[in-house]
Amino acid sequence: MLSRIVVLMFDDETVVAWRAMPYRAAVVAAGGGEIGSAESLLGDEAEDIFHGIVVKRAGRALEIPAVRIKKITTRHVVTDLSDAEVEALPAYREEHWFHLGWGGLFRKHPEWDETSKT
Predict the structure, then answer these.
(1) Are 80 and 118 a contacting pair, CB within 8 Å?
(2) 27-63: per-residue pLDDT in tens?
(3) What is residue 64's three-state secondary structure?
């Protein structure tokens, strides 16, 4: 039931693709409370792989994996995180990142290289 409620949040807003996520969009938890603001996209643009986002909360940069993001609209990023899970979010840890437009960053793990593609 909770997942259905999460998906219905901000139903009057236009859903957008991960690459079109608005800079500093409000990021909300499953209960509707604001987690913080979206500061960066995490992904691989060339492969069209969305890894997640960096959210700014109380001056800290935290990482939310893509699997926990249920909807991105023109104004909000909706997650399925409970309040307890929000408090346990890991700090953002920079790896190999590439700047994109409004401030988004695309991740390349150090262990990923062009020769290892199958």
Answers:
(1) no
(2) 999 988 999 999 999 888 878 889 999 999 999 999 9
(3) strand
pTM of the model: 0.75
Stretch (H or E) spanning 44 = strand 34-44
Domain boundaries, the chain: 2-40+52-94
Token readout for 24 is 């500093």
Identity (one letter) of the amino acid at 40? S
- Residue of 12, 19, 47, 29 lying closest to 89 (CA atoms): 29
How confident is residue 104, by pLDDT bands cut at 50, 70 and 90? low
Domain boundaries 2-40+52-94, corresponding CATH code: 2.30.30
